[in-house]
Amino acid sequence: MKGMTTFGNVQQRAEALAANYYDALVPVKEMEFSDLRTVKIGGEPHHLRRVASQRVAARLGIPHPYLERCPADLQAEQLNYWLREERNEEFFVRFDGADVRAVFTPRYTPADNLEVLSRLVEIGVGTETKVQVALDKEFMSLSIPDQNRTFEVKGDRLTPGISVSNSEVGLASLSVKAFFLRLVCTNGLIAKTEVSSSYRHVSARILEELPQALGQVQGELDSSRDKMRISMSSPVSDPEATLRSFNRQFQLSQREQKAVAWGFVQEPGKTMWEIIQAYTFGSKHSPLTAEESHRLQVVGGMVLGMVQ
Fold this sequence. Notes:
The structure is a single chain. The chain has about 300 residues and is an alpha+beta fold. The protein folds into two domains: about 20-105, no CATH class; about 115-305, no CATH class. It is about 40% helix and about 25% strand. It has eleven helices and 14 strands. The strands form three sheets. Strands 1, 8, 9, 10, 11, 12, 13 and 14 form an eight-stranded antiparallel beta sheet that branches. Strands 2-6-7 form a three-stranded antiparallel beta sheet. It has a three-stranded antiparallel beta sheet with strand order 3-4-5. Helix 9 packs across helix 10 and helix 10 runs antiparallel to helix 11. The longest helix has 17 residues, at about 290-305. The relative contact order is 0.12. InterPro entries: DUF932. Pfam families: DUF932. This is DUF932 domain-containing protein.
């Protein structure tokens, strides 16, 4: 799910994704790997999704790219050897039906997307509220524009708001940041602000403090206006080289770089504003995951933050 929609539609999609979700504390001694993508729990085989296999490998201290190159029997041998060395007696395992979607230590208390959405309802977000979203099984990026605060910068109309992102499988912590929606093309930019709030996954604290975090970010939304104005007047002699430089700086993947190149073609130009829009336009590229789309909006905001 990606693009402009209503908050109610996001709720429905999140509920549909979560239909078969459940969590369990699993004794480590009951786990045995058949290979990198299959684990037996109590003798029953379960498919490990890629994110789960990456987290397991990281937890056990084995480089995931190395394991991927190994044959299945060697994968199992190494995973099971280091699993026996694990100091925790249990793992916190997140399931989607028979699939394992995440594996954490017992101290990890994740924030569920449905909990976050419910908290937003409690503080006044209605089902018909227009939002921009990128949502899949691994990541949620939800941006809520404040239509009453739309402003213009050199004829370009923008609506500020807040962006809430969360990963139930540990790709990122719950985060609340400033957001700008460019109305002419619905490009979204997640601004780098001093009061952006990010929390480790301790649900009670997150959900208690969400209203305060939203209020803090709302109070700083105007701080990016001057940088936007300056970016529109800041010339760039070689846009392609500039994009390559930023891509390296932010360590974008090949797929993300292709999305940025596609985004630049949508609105080419020779100012920093067009450079920024390459990232925000690129976030809408269809092959991207929700996390990748969110990342490009964040990179756009970080590039804006560099404008002097």
